[in-house]
């Protein structure tokens, strides 16, 4: 959209390994969190998501897995609607037998269109992951697909850092006006 890049690098906090926990599951195929009606999802505008380090359909570089130390991968997005009030990012696996949410970032300034390795934009907050940790929890399951979904929202999520996964995903789902995704095939 030609919006300025307002991403500022901020060091990440250490994250632990994920443990099993209940969470709101993404609906199949659409990439939407929560339980929005199918008709509503069909009307959402697409966001273009890319990365200088990830390619859609290619393996996730091991640097961004639990075998590496790079933290979260860099992401870029474009075609965010003008009415966007904030942006959120959710990284998860779409495992056949459940899944994990590895990262939730919300209340990103809508003028921001990228984030760097191992950082979140200034002013953005991170919610809890499936394991209850705050921050990027590197994926560990080598054969899983990992999805990095960017959501344009019609309002801020307005939760505190470390908010529960259920609460955060529900708020993102309720406010989503557009979304886009980059999916990796497995871990290198």
From TrEMBL:
<comment type="similarity">
    <text>Belongs to the UPF0098 family.</text>
</comment>
<dbReference type="InterPro" id="IPR005247">
    <property type="entry name" value="YbhB_YbcL/LppC-like"/>
</dbReference>
<dbReference type="InterPro" id="IPR036610">
    <property type="entry name" value="PEBP-like_sf"/>
</dbReference>
<feature type="region of interest" description="Disordered">
    <location>
        <begin position="50"/>
        <end position="74"/>
    </location>
</feature>
<protein>
    <recommendedName>
        <fullName>Phospholipid-binding protein, PBP family</fullName>
    </recommendedName>
</protein>
<dbReference type="Pfam" id="PF01161">
    <property type="entry name" value="PBP"/>
</dbReference>
<dbReference type="InterPro" id="IPR008914">
    <property type="entry name" value="PEBP"/>
</dbReference>
């Amino acid at each position: 959209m030609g919006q300025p890049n307002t991403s500022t690098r901020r060091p990440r906090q250490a994250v632990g390994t994920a443990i099993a926990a209940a969470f709101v599951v993404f609906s199949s195929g659409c990439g939407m969190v929560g339980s929005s009606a199918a008709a509503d999802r069909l009307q959402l505008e697409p966001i273009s998501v890319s990365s200088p380090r990830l390619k859609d359909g290619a393996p996730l570089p091991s640097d961004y897995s639990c075998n590496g130390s790079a933290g979260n991968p860099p992401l870029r997005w474009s075609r965010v609607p003008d009415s966007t009030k904030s942006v959120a990012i959710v990284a998860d696996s779409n495992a056949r037998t459940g899944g994990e949410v590895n990262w939730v970032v919300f209340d990103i300034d809508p003028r921001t269109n990228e984030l760097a390795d191992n950082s979140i934009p200034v002013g953005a907050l991170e919610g809890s992951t499936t394991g209850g940790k705050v921050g990027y929890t590197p994926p560990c399951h080598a054969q899983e697909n990992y999805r990095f979904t960017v959501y344009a929202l019609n309002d801020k999520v307005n939760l505190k850092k470390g908010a529960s996964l259920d609460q955060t995903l529900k708020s993102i789902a309720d406010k989503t006006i557009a979304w886009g995704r980059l999916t990796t095939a497995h871990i290198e």
